[in-house]
Design goal:
Pfam families: DUF6323 (PF19848). This protein has about 160 residues and is mainly α. The chain is built from six helices and no strands.
């Protein structure tokens, strides 16, 4: 009986997360962006894998929706790279949520990611993940108050 309840809740949650992400298309269409069903399934799979790897639990898909709405106006995202970019951003988010020791909120991490992606990184996911967020996480672990300060790190 318990297994059937777990399966029902899991399927119900999965459908809700899927529908929430699809609903973002209403907002992102203003920017010429739309996620296809295959994109959404891949993003949810990435989220589930990232949660499993990090030992995290999430009861809704709000993080994905927040990432989508934060990044949809980026000058570095087009329909051509949209699904893949969101997928990678979701993976990066969950990785660095752990790396920052939960010191910063979900919303602050998304805000930092979006600001650095559009400005400092000029659309480079590799620079965002491998340099910028790595440095921020390192600053947090080392107790640096101005943890978003990246001076002398770009070169």
């Amino acid at each position: 009986m318990k297994n059937s309840i777990d399966i029902f809740q899991s399927n119900s949650l999965g459908k809700q997360v899927f529908n929430d992400i699809i609903k973002c298309n209403e907002f992102t269409s203003e920017y010429g962006l739309k996620l296809l069903e295959e994109d959404v399934k891949e993003i949810i799979n990435t989220r589930n894998t990232a949660l499993e790897k990090s030992g995290r639990i999430e009861f809704n898909g709000q993080i994905i929706s927040k990432i989508i709405t934060a990044f949809c106006d980026s000058p570095y995202i087009s329909q051509y790279n949209y699904g893949d970019t969101i997928n990678q951003l979701v993976e990066i988010f969950y990785n660095y949520k752990n790396e920052t020791l939960d010191y910063i909120s979900d919303d602050e991490l998304i805000e930092i990611m979006e600001e650095k992606f559009d400005n400092y990184c000029q659309g480079s996911l590799e620079l965002l993940e491998g340099t910028v967020l790595y440095k921020i996480a390192d600053n947090i672990r080392n107790g640096i108050k101005d943890y978003t300060n990246l001076d002398n790190e770009k070169d």
